[in-house]
Amino acid sequence: MDRYGVAAVQRLTLLRALLVAVLVVPLLAVVSGSVLAHASALRGSTTTVSVPTWLFLSTGGGAVGASFLLASFVTDRSFIRSIHDWGVRLPAPGRILTAGARVVGVAGLAVTVAVGYLGPADGYRNLAVLLVWVLWWGGYVASTYLVGNSWPALNPFRTLASLAPSLNYQYPDRLGSWPSVAGLLGLIWLEVISPLADDPRLLATTVVAYAAVSTAGSVVFGTEVWFSRVDPIATAFRLFGRVAPVAKTADGLTVRLPGTALSDADVVSGRDEVVFVVALLYATTFDGFVGTGLWRDVATAIVGLGLPPLVVYLLSYLAGFGLFLGAFWWSMAVARRFGRTYITRTALAERFAPSLLAIAAGYHVAHYLAFVVGLVPAVATVASAPLAPPSQLPVVTTLPGWVSGLELALVLVGHFVAVWVAHAAGYQLLPGRLEAIKSQYGITAVMICYTMISLWIVSTPSVTPPFLGGGGV
Amino acid sequence: MTTTSETETTESDHPPTSIPVGDTTEECPYCALDVPDKTQYRLHLGVEHYERLADAERERFHEAYRAEADALDRFRIIALGGLVLLYFGFLLVYALLAA
Lengths: 473, 99
Known about the structure:
Shape of chain A: globular
Helix content of chain B: 55-70%
Mean pLDDT of chain A: 87
Largest sheet of chain B: 2 strands, antiparallel
Order of helices and strands of chain A: HHHEHHHHHHHHEEHHHHHHHH
Shape of chain B: elongated
Largest interface: A-B, 35 and 35 residues
Order of helices and strands of chain B: EEEEHH
Largest sheet of chain A: 3 strands, antiparallel
Oligomer: heterodimer
């Protein structure tokens, strides 16, 4: 086909995609409208009609179920493929831009460590805490799934590690990406149980330790191997970057529809990376769960029986993760059975797990949007005088009601993208169109349960996690 | 399911499969993918290897595809029913609560 023909097909495809968006979105809005109407009640506003929690949660679950039913009407393979293959090429960012990103990354790291040790000792007046938790973990992470993963260029740990010589020892292949799974679970654990978000000295020490470990690892196994297989942060951002529209390829940048890259065959490979994706989804859930009244009551009761609080936290942390993994693994057995296929559960999981990344991204926004917007003035004030910030910081305490509505809408958008990606995965793997739909029964059920759990966590009044002495973002 | 006693095969051009012991399978002559029944076999041939099929095989694929379309129509009616039920179910519950 000549290039005008290709362009015409692309225009037609775009038109069809727009048509679907125009037709499908209002339908979804009808189902989810009631949730959005309730959204402003999330932050304790008294102006909206209050809906019982069970109805609020089942409406969320119903919206996900409805989007699965709607997606099941799209059975045209070439149409699904055309949506996922659509893309435009852009020239690669210049070397100057990449070098600039490296400088910014290393400067950010240096400021974090220096101010962390030398600045004021209380959390939100210290620029290190604000840089890490507000700008980086809140704002920058959002850019990895909303725009594209720029971490390989910005990553200061990588820049520093690449300066050191490498011994290039052979990385034991049987370890796969399991070290990154352990690293991610370890980081989340540390964030939940330690005052990492309040204590700038501890934060600076953790950052220094992280830099030391990644430099040592790079010296032993080489920078490329370390940051692609072991480093949990780089792996998390690489996966989040697959949700984003912009991606870096060998010969430049490509722009695709958000989320469509998740159905590519190379997003996740092996059981280790599947577990990593589930851990990424679990991170936000556990972080939120320890701040609920239910957890406070349960933990207080168990600790009352004589178990040390940290053991209770650790056991619940691992049990919850086991539950998430079990549910996902079960859904793959369902996919195998109803999809009438002999493809192994692991191979199915590799293609279905990426859909969960869209959900994780949606919840990340819900978790951090108001937090980041509220603290941006404080960051600006502290940044102008990092070593002697004013004692009273400007904080936006009352955000307009639509912000929480936007948060909830993004949670739902994340779910809709996830349902669609699972739909596309079914169609790429299975020859039967009906089987491709039926293969999603399990994962749709899991997504519905997950939505209801997460909406409950988001909407329940948050309390300080018990026994930890504050902390947690 | 007999997951413990399954035989695993790995081919480069299709995802790895594991077949429960005792199952009779249909093997694709072009990519060696095993599928559990004749319908899936014909659909697989048509979807993945249409260019290489003989006319008779193509006809069998079209037949299976048409039969599948009928099943899909039935599924769509149920799905539409589910959507209607969800929509009016919630509408009713919200109306009752608002009253």
